[in-house]
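Methods, example record. To illustrate the input and output format used throughout this study, we show the complete record for DUF7660 domain-containing protein. The sequence lines were provided to the predictor; the line carrying structure tokens was produced by it.
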Amino acid sequence: MRNIKKSQEINEQIEFGLDTIDPNRTVEIKLKDLMLIYKTFEELNRFFHQPMHYPTMEDINTFLGNKDVGAFSIIGKIYYRVLNKYIPKNIMEKVEEDFFSPENSPYYYKVKNDENIDDGTLNVIDRQSFAEFVEILLAENKQEWEVQNIEQFIENISAYAQDIDGLYHNLGFDTSAETPTWRIFAQILKGATIYE
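The corresponding predicted structure is encoded as:
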């Protein structure tokens, strides 16, 4: 049975603050960009409207793909490269200030512990697995890192280490990062590649 309360949270997350925007205000958009957005929603609707299309998690994972292929790659392209061209500056400033974000995080952020998080660190349990994780992190994700120099990376390690308990709290973890483990060290390193 579906949890209607959790489903309703999604509506609240998406619609929060939109009633503050003048309904008569408009923006002009290139037809090609509009069609990319339309076709993406068309495909999302075509897939998700029929539960027989995704009887297993593997079906959903195949459909979504990753940052390079599949629905998720197009969603990322629209979010990061297309929509930013059209959101007015004053509205984007409000977005960046979380004006359109409710105080409470969506239900899917609330997990019982960090063992439920598939961030690539789950199997980091000792020095050897940590070393293997670091090799993979460097080999696979170097081009995606938002930091490009060692000074920035070290600053991010410090900031992420100080803020990791806040992250754990926001995610609803029943644990903290006070007891150092190889996995927590791996999470801090990984987080430092993108932390702002």
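Annotations derived from this record:
The two ends are 39 Å apart (CA to CA).
Helices lie at 4-15, 31-48, 57-64, 71-82, 89-96, 127-141, 150-170, 182-192.
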